[in-house]
Amino acid sequence: MRQFFERVDVALRRSALWRSLFRQPYPTDERSRAYAVMNNVFLHLHPVRVRQHAVKFAYTFCLGGLSFFFFLVLTVTGVFLMFFYVPSSTSAYDDILRIQAEVPFGLLTRNIHRWAAHLMVFFVFLHMMRVFYHGAYKPPREFNWVIGTLLLFFTIALSFTGYLLPWDQIAFWAITIGNNIASYVPLLSRPSQLLIFGGIEVSQNTLLRFYVLHVILLPLTAAVFLAVHFWRIRKDGGISGPL
Amino acid sequence: MGNWKLARWQEPRVLTRDVLREMRQGRPAGLSRRTLIRRSIGAGVGLWLLEVTGGLLGFLWPNLSKGFGGQIQLGDIVIVGDNQAVRGATLQDGAPAYISQARTYVQLIDPSRGFADGTSTDGEGLNTNVRTLYQRCPHLGCKPNFCTINYWFECPCHGSRYDRLGIKIRELGPAPRSLDRFAHTIKDGILTVDTSKITLGPLPVPLGQPGLVPPRSPQGCI
Which one, out of A121, A236, B8, B176, has a CA that is 20 to 30 A from the CA of A30? Predict the structure, then answer.
C-alpha cells in the first residue's frame, strides 16, 4: 500500500503539470530558498536577503505594510458589498440598510470596510510621518516619496468617493460641501463642478460617478502606483537605514 | 540628368567596407528616418490622447436642457402656497413656500398682499411682491431651513442665518452674502421662475440695522 502511494507521489512530481507549477524541489538549502523567493511572483517583491535593521519593528512599525494590508481588506470587503449595493438614488440607502439587517455577516462586512477605510487613511498618514522623520524621502528615494504623495491623494479620493455611497443625509451634504470647497478653484470652478456632480448639484449622476470612481478607476490606478511604489523600494536599495 | 545638383555627401559611392561603416556610424544629415518615425508616432499618440481627453470631457459633460436650470412654472398663489416649507406655516403668515423641483423658496415681501403681475429680472421682486430665493447657501451649498421660531432661515451645516427675505445677518455664520435670487415673472397671477438667471444676493447686514427683518424670537432652531 505504502509503495503504491510512493509511486503515485513520484509520478505526480514528475508530471509536466507539477513541474510547471513548482519549478524546483522543496527548498532545503540557502541557494534553493533564494530561488524559491525569486521565482515566486508574490515573494519576489521582497529581497532575498534583508539587512538586520530593516526587520526591526520599531524602525518602520510596519506602517506601509499595514496601509497595504488595509487596501487589500478594503478590496475584498468592497467586492462583497458590491454584490448587494446598487448605486441608484432610490435604492442605495435601502441597500445599505438591507446589507446591515438581512445579509448574513452584512453588518460585519460593512463595518470592516468602514473601519478599514478609516484606519487606512490613519496608517497612510502615520507612514508618511515615519518616512518624513527618518529623512527617508532624501535621494535616492525622492521619486518614491512623490509616488507616495500621489498614493496619499488616491487614498483620500477613495475615502471621499466612498463617503457619498450610503446616500444618507450626512453623505449628501458632506459631498455638497466638499465639492463646493473644490469649486473655489479659480477659472475651473464651474466646469469642475459640472464634471464632478454630473449636473448642478449632487444627484443620481453624482452617485453613479462616485461609485464608478470608487470601485474601478481609483483602486485600479492606486494598484498600479502601489506596484511602482514597492518596486522603487527595491530599486532604491531597500528600506532606508537608521540615521 | 546628372549628379551636379547633389551635395557632396549625396553622391553615389562604391559600397566598400569603410564607406558602409561610415554610413552606419555617421550621423545622417537632416532628419534621420528613425527620428522622423519616432516623432510621427509621438505626435500621433499625443494627438490621440488629446482627442480621448476631449472626448471624455464631452462624454461626461452633463446635459442640462431639462428640469432645474430652465424656466419652471410654479402656479398661482394658492398652488404655490400649498407647498409650505414648514407644515402649518403659511405664506400669509410670512413663512416661505418651498418648491423642490425648482430648488426655490418663494416668499411674499409683504405677507398681507398677494402676487402682483410683473417681471423681476433680478428676483428681488419689489414690483411683484414675491422673492424667489435659491435654496443654496452661498457659503458651501447646503440648504438653509426655515425656522418657525424666529422666522429666519438657518443653515444647518455651518450656522449661517438669513432673515425671512434671505438677507444674511453679518454676525451670524460664515456665508459671504445673502441668498441668491432667481428671476421670475408673474402673469395673470401665475408665477414662473427662471432658474437659469441667478442674481447673487446682496452683502450681509449687521444686526439691528435697517434692511433686516428682525427675528420673532431671540431663540432659533439650531
Answer: A236
Q: Are residues A148 and A218 in the same domain?
A: yes
Query: Does A127 share its domain with A32?
Result: no
Q: Which residues of A touch B60 (CB under 8 A)?
A: 195, 198, 209
In a domain, A151, yes or no: yes
Judge if A140 and A29 occupy the same domain: no
Q: What is the CATH number of the domain that holds A95?
A: 1.20.810.10
Partner residue facing A177 (CB), from B61, B68, B157? B157
Residues A66 and A181 grouped into a single domain:
yes
The CA-atom distances, in angstroms, between B53 and each of B60, B205, B212 are 11, 46, 49
Whether A158 has a pLDDT exceeding 60, the answer reads: yes
Interface confidence (ipTM) of the complex: 0.70
- Contact in structure between A121 and A159 (CB atoms under 8 Å): yes
Residue B181 has pLDDT above 90, yes or no: yes
Q: What is the pLDDT of residue B67?
A: 67
Is A240 a domain residue?
A: no
A177-231 pLDDT per residue, tens: 988 888 888 888 888 888 888 888 888 999 999 999 999 999 999 999 999 999 9
CA distances from A181 to A186, A192, A199, B96, B156 (A): 11, 11, 16, 28, 17
Q: How far is A75 from chain B (nearest CA, A)?
A: 26
Same domain for A8 and A62, yes or no, is no
Domain identity same for A144 and A101: yes
Q: Inter-chain contact B136–A197, Cβ cutoff 8 Å?
A: no
β-partners of residue B181 are B133, B199
- Residue B65 has a pLDDT of 62
* Domain of A201, in residue numbers: 53-235
Residues A70, A162: Cα–Cα separation, whole Å: 15
Angle at B61 (CA atoms; ends B59, B66), nearest 5 degrees: 115
Contact B142 A201 (CB under 8 A): no
Q: What global pTM score does this model have?
A: 0.81
CATH number of B71-199: 2.102.10.10
